[in-house]
Amino acid sequence: MSERAWLLHVRQSVFTKLVAIMLAMAAILLVLVLAFVLLYLGPVMNASIDGVVHEYMHTVATTAPSYERAKEIGERLDVQTRYEGPDGAWATAENLPTIAEARRHERGSFSGRHYYVTSAPNGGTYVFAWKLSERMHTAHLVVPGVVLLLIATVVFAAHGVLRRLLLPLRWLGDGVTRLSEGDLDIAVPKRSGDEFGALTDAFNRMVGRIKDMIRARDQLLLDVSHELRSPVTRLKVALELVADPDMKARMAADMAEMEIMIGELLEFERLRDGRGISTTRQNVVALLGEVARNYDDRPPSVRVVPTTPEILVDIDLDRMRTVIRNLLENAIKYSLPDSSPVEVSATQNGQAVVIRVTDDGPGISERDMPSLFEPFFRVDRSRSKKTGGYGLGLSIAKRIVEAHGGTIAAENNAKRGASFVVTLPEPA
Ligand code: ADP
Q1: Ligand 1 pocket, CB under 6 A
Q2: Whose CA is nearest to atom 18 of ligand 1?
Q3: Does the fold of domain 278-425 match that of domain 195-270?
C-alpha cells in the first residue's frame, strides 16, 4: 500500500474515528477539569486560605513576637516577617519589601508573594510575606498533570480494548474482499455473541447460500447441455431431409452454433475443480506458431514474437490449444480496423513460463476487469454476428490454466489495447 493510500485508509477507518472521539472527549474533560480548578476551586481555596492566614497573622502580631520567635515561625510556616517600630527594625529575610511597598501590594501579590501589613500593640508595624500563590501554582500544575496522566492511561487501555473489539470487523472485511474476488471457500471465525457475532453468522450463511446457488446453476447447465445433445443429433438427421438448399445451409449454420455452445458448456463443467487434464511435455513455442497460423488471413493477423525456439512445459496439448485459440480469437475479434497485428510470445523467467497475447483493440474498462473471467460475462450484452460468443471463452481458458497450476490475468496496455498473460509452472 502506498503512503497516501495508507493515510487515506487510516483516516477513513472506524477504529481511527473511535480513537479520535475518545481523544476529543479526553481533551474536553481536561479543559473542564482545568477550568474548574483555575476558575473556581483555585480562587475559592485562595480566598479561604487567605482568610485563615490573615486571622493567624493578626493573632501573631498582637502577641508582639521577637526576631527569634518570628524566625522560628518563618521556618516552620514559610512566612517571612519585617518589623519596624519604636524598639528597632528587623526582617527574617533579606529581600522583603519596605512597609510602604508591602501596603501597595497588600490586595494582590508582588514578586510571587502575598503580603499582610498590620500594626503591633506598641505602635510598630509588621509585614508578613508568604508564598501561597507558588504553592497554589504547584497545585494547579499537579492536578491537571495527574488528570492528563489518568486520561492517557484510560485512552491507552481503551485503544487496546477497541482493537480487540473491532477484530471481527477486520475479519469480516477480509472475508468480503475474498468473496468479491471469487473465493467461496471462506468461513469467518466467530469470536463473540454480540452484534459482530450475529453479523459473522449471517455472513457465513450468505456465503453458504451463494455456494449452493452456484452449484445449482452449474448442475442445471450441465443437465440442460446433456439433455440438449440428443434433440440436436435428431435435428441434424432431420436436416438431411430439407429440400431447399438455402434453408438447409442456414439451419446447418444455426445447428453448428448450438453444437459449439453445448460443447463449450460441457467442457466448462468437465473442467470443474481441475478435473480431466492429462499432461505431456510440449514445446509451447511450436504450439503458439501452429495456432497463430490459422489467423494468417484474418486481419489484423497474429505475429509470434521470436524469443527462444524451444520452451518445454507440461501441458494438456488440446486444452492448452483451446486456451491460446480463445485468447487469439478474442484479440482478433475485438481488434479495430486500424489495429496493428496481435502479438503472442512465450518467455521463461526461471520459475514460470509466461505466454502473453497483446492486441491493439479498445482495451477493457477497469469496471469490467474483475468480471472478465466469469462465465457468461460479456462487456457488450447484445451478441452481434461479428463478436458472437456466449461469454464462456475466457472462463474456460481460466479453468484450463488453473487445472495446470497456472494463472491467467488481463491488463490494459500503456498505449492501446489489452494483454492477456498466462503463467504456467516450469516442469520440474
Ligand atoms: P466471448 O465469447 O463473448 O468473447 P469471452 O469469455 O471470450 O466471451 O470474453 C468475455 C468478454 O471479455 C467479451 O465479451 C469481451 O467483451 C471481453 N474481451 C475479451 N477479450 C477481449 C479483448 N482482447 N479486448 C477487449 N475485450 C475483450
Answers
A1: 326, 330-331, 334, 359, 361-362, 364, 372, 377-380, 389-395, 418
A2: 330
A3: no
CB-facing half-sphere around the CA of 140: CA atoms within 13 A:
19
The amino acid occupying position 374 is E
Q: Work out which ligand 1 atom sits closest to the CA atom of 379.
A: 16
CA gap 342, 356 in Å, rounded: 10
Q: What is the DSSP letter of 38?
A: I
Q: So where are the chain's domains?
A: 1-165, 195-270, 278-425
Q: What share of the chain has pLDDT > 90, as a percent?
A: 34
Q: What is the pLDDT of residues 375-403, one digit of tens each?
A: 888 777 655 445 556 788 999 999 999 99
Q: Shortest CA distance to 61 belongs to which of 11, 119, 148, 142?
A: 119
Distance CA 192, CA 178 (A): 22
Other beta carbons within 10 angstroms of residue 218's beta carbon come to 15
Is 278-425 in CATH node 3.90.1150.10? Answer: no
Write down the pTM of the prediction.
0.60
Q: What is the CATH number of domain 195-270?
A: 1.10.287.130
| Atom in ligand 1 nearest the alpha carbon of residue 390 | 2
Residue 275 in contact with residue 403, Cβ under 8 Å?
yes
- In the chain the first and final C-alpha atoms are separated, in Å, by 34
pLDDT digits (tens, 9 = 90+) for 235-257: 989 998 988 999 999 999 989 88
